[in-house]
Amino acid sequence: MARVPRAPKKAAGDQPPPAPERLKRVKRNPEFDISLGARIRAARLAAHMSQGALGQAVGISFQQVQKYELGRDRVAVSTLHAIAVALGVHAGSFFDEDMPAATGPIPDVKAVIKLGQRIQRVRDPVVAKRLLALADMLAGSEDEQSTVTGDGAP
Question: How far is Cα 30 from Cα 33, in angstroms, rounded to an integer?
């Protein structure tokens, strides 16, 4: 039998190497969870899918989908990927800063999507611009109104 060489003995004054620094657990960020949930909800509504249908496609309950959308539970990366696949979007779109996240009440998200769909049905581009100018005027953002029509009036 061959002998296995042993590691050399340490000198009496040698110190063991320091233990690797442990990463501290990051505390929960409710604002992020709520924003991510709102983006998931907006994508689900845009895909015309119910919470139950999304949950079934992903393999979770509709109650769990609801908790994710409200930001009450954190979404695991694998679950977020499955949600993105089920909705037909890229998982990175949930983190895109250019994509507006809904921050208001849930009925506002539905209303915005419905309004956008109806404006897209307008065939005349002049009428569409005037509708957007009217929305700006009603919202009280007169600065944006002038950029839509070019002359400051609808």
Answer: 5
pTM: 0.53
134: three-class secondary structure by DSSP: helix
Question: How wide is the angle at C-alpha 82 spanned by C-alphas 81 and 83, nearest 5°?
Answer: 90
- What CATH architecture does domain 30-103 belong to? Orthogonal Bundle (1.10)
Closest CA to 86 of 114, 112, 65: 65
Q: How far apart are CA 20 and CA 18, in angstroms?
A: 6
Domain positions in the chain = 30-103
Between helix 51-58 and helix 77-87 the angle, nearest 10°, is 120
Q: How far apart are CA 33 and CA 73, in angstroms?
A: 8
Residues 119, 131 contacting (CB under 8 angstroms)? yes
87 contacts 49 by C-beta, under 8 angstroms: yes
Q: What is the pLDDT of residues 84-99, one digit of tens each?
A: 999 998 888 888 665 5
Helix locations, 1-124, DSSP H: 30-46, 51-58, 62-70, 77-87, 106-121
**Residues 141 and 133 sit within 8 Å (Cβ to Cβ):** no
